[in-house]
Amino acid sequence: MSYPDRVYWGDSGEASANFRPASTPPGVGEAGKDAVHYLASTDTTRGEFGLYRVEMSARAGGPKTHFHKRISESFYVLAGTVRLFDGAQWIDGQQGDFLHVPQGGLHAFRNDSDAPAEMLLFFTPGAPREEYFEKLSQLADATDEERAAFLDKHDSYFVE
User: Fold this and answer.
1) Looking at the DSSP assignment, which residues form a beta bridge with residue 122?
2) Cα 149 to the center of its chain, rounded Å
3) Residue 122: CATH number of its domain
4) CA-CA distance, 146 to 52, in Å (whole number)?
5) Is 88 part of a structural domain of the chain?
6) Are the C-beta atoms of 42 and 111 separated by less than 8 Å?
7) 13, 86, 104, 117: which has the fewest Cβ within 10 Å?
């Protein structure tokens, strides 16, 4: 494996960092409850990756078993207990636990505990996951065709 192709061609560097204060409101939901914080959005990283902080209230549940064809997904538990499905078994992820799922890997996550939980989600390469998080709740009234088109557009294939 080698380094990727060069992206920056200058000789002296530039001031181009992007600072996101902790006080920034979440992209979806309400802070301290069920929320998704866009730490590094697809636009910020120019599609290199996406990094999100997910807050889950007690007994929040989570998505059913699914896989992605174009992106990998990684989970890092920050607080509480996050149930992680690695394609073969459910694992009670605790603070500091990490799960990487390559393209095609079956996975799911949920909070079944009586306490809040928090984790980081990391996608690579970057994809417009922000739209997925923002519009997912609108699928309740969608037709089967609309739901299938939305999920395909967002590289999400559910198996249960």
Assistant:
1) 51, 74
2) 20
3) 2.60.120.10
4) 26
5) yes
6) no
7) 13
- Beta-ladder partners of 100: 74
* Contact criterion met (CB below 8 Å) for 133 and 36: yes
Positive or negative torsion for Cα 100, 81, 155, 153 = negative
SS3 of residue 150 by DSSP? helix
Burial of 11 (0-12, 13-18, 19+ CB in 10 A): exposed
Mean pLDDT of successive 10-residue segments in the chain (160 residues)?
A: 91 94 93 92 92 96 95 98 98 98 98 97 91 87 92 92
What's the CA dihedral at 95, 22, 52, 86 to 10 degrees?
0
pLDDT tens-digit readout, 127-149: 889 889 888 888 888 999 999 99
Judge whether 99 lies within some domain.
yes
Chain centre to alpha carbon of residue 39: 11
**Which residue is listed with tokens 């998704």?**
36
Cross-strand partners of 60: none
Backbone φ and ψ of 36, nearest 5°: -120, 120
Domain-embedded: residue 39? yes
Structural domain containing residue 93: 33-158
Q: Answer yes or no: is 6 within a domain.
A: no
Q: What is the pTM of this model?
A: 0.91
Reported residue count of the chain is: 160
